[in-house]
Specification:
Layout lengths: L1 H19 L5 E5 L4 E2 L2 E4 L4 E7 L2 E4 L4 E6 L4 E3 L17 E9 L7 E9 L14 E8 L7 E6 L9 E8 L6 E7 L4 E5 L2 E2 L4 E4 L16 E4 L1 E4 L2 E4 L1 E10 L5 H15 L2 H4 L5 E3 L6 E5 L8 E6 L5 E7 L7 E5 L6 E9 L2 E10 L1
Length: about 350
């Protein structure tokens, strides 16, 4: 009976988590988990979401994802020859959340398009101009050898962008990233792996520019993994997962929850290396033990969040001189479901869910 009661508690807490995990104001959600033939659903409407052209279903950061071969694989919403859902043309502000892992970034000429919204066909112009918006990796030869992430919009026609920033730092091939593009009523920003992109660089516009879907001149085409560069078709090579679009500018707390949603799988075995933390018991009551890997020498920050993003517990830790286990008093935490992170010098080493009962 005790075991059954614990299962009941777990199910209830995970239900609460799913309902509150940064989902307010979400207008579209494509997880690529529910696929029938070449069709996948939009989890907001539970109706047809889009059409898959050649992509493979593979394990992702949450459930399954789509793998793109970089040659001719792409997704169109809802399908080739069909206009995007009308709701996008009315979004003057909002956020786009996406997980991606790029396997190859062209450094001589081209881009790896992640998200494309705009013209049916390419502009006759030397870059990715599309009278809409695009999220891409790479920008050569305009930015020679660049492996940076770009968020760009065109509201002046088939000419130079009206707004564009890049990540400042290049993306590492084969590594998962969580990106959120944010546009408010009088500003824009971005988050990468849960962190505000303070090092982003503006090529056009500035942090006060506020252009989004409704500002696009063309509302003809919405594609994932396909776009144009110098009038040529370009395709993404890698994996894309969990695309969510919101009708408002997400706050840091909401972004944290979206990042934590996928982060336990986003930290790959290669990145994790020997950093195999253990947190037990879980569910816990008053005490939780943390086993710290031998490879960890630096000070750690252990943070616990409510599912609404509120930080409720934080502790700086150092591995004891004798042994690898630290005992942490969590008796002040009320019963419920929490999310925790373990960081070293702002690098996320581990994160998961913690239940207090």
């Amino acid at each position: 009976m005790k075991y059954i009661r614990h299962i009941h508690i777990l199910c209830s807490f995970f239900l609460i988590f799913n309902l509150s995990n940064g989902q307010n104001g979400m207008v579209a959600h494509w997880s690529f988990d529910s696929i029938s033939g070449d069709q996948f659903i939009d989890h907001v409407t539970n109706q047809e979401g889009g059409t898959i052209y050649g992509c493979k279903s593979v394990p992702g950061v949450v459930g399954n994802a789509l793998e793109f071969d970089g040659v001719d694989d792409f997704v169109r919403i809802p399908g080739v020859g069909q206009l995007p859902p009308e709701l996008f043309s009315n979004l003057s502000e909002g956020s786009i959340s996406v997980w991606f892992r790029v396997e190859n970034i062209p450094t001589i000429k081209g881009i790896r398009p992640i998200f494309y919204y705009g013209r049916e066909f390419a502009c006759e112009f030397f870059d990715a101009a599309n009278e809409g918006l695009i999220i891409e990796v790479g920008h050569s030869p305009i930015h020679a050898g660049s492996k940076r992430l770009y968020f760009t919009q065109w509201t002046n026609g088939c000419t130079l962008p009206s707004f564009c920033y890049n990540s400042g730092k290049g993306m590492v091939q084969g590594q998962w990233y969580h990106y959120v593009a944010v546009v408010g009523s009088n500003y824009n920003t971005g988050f990468l792996n849960g962190e505000l992109m303070n090092d982003r660089h503006y090529n056009f516009g500035n942090s006060n520019t506020h252009e989004f879907f409704s500002d696009a001149l063309a509302h003809e085409n919405l594609m994932i993994g396909r776009g144009y560069w110098d009038s040529n078709e370009m395709f993404f090579m890698g994996t894309i997962d969990e695309i969510k679009i919101f009708d408002h500018a997400l706050l840091q707390e909401e972004v944290d929850l979206l990042y934590l949603e996928g982060n336990p799988l986003a930290v790959t075995e290669q990145e994790r290396g020997d950093n195999n933390f253990k947190l037990y018991p879980n569910p816990a009551s008053e005490i939780v033990n943390m086993d710290i890997p031998d490879s960890i020498k630096s000070e750690l920050t252990f943070s616990v969040f409510k599912t609404n993003g509120e930080l409720v517990f934080q502790l700086n830790l150092k591995k004891p001189d004798n042994g690898n286990t630290i005992e942490i008093d969590v008796s002040r935490l009320s019963k419920g479901l929490y999310l925790y992170t373990i960081k070293s010098n702002d690098q996320n080493l581990d994160s998961d869910k913690l239940i207090i009962q």
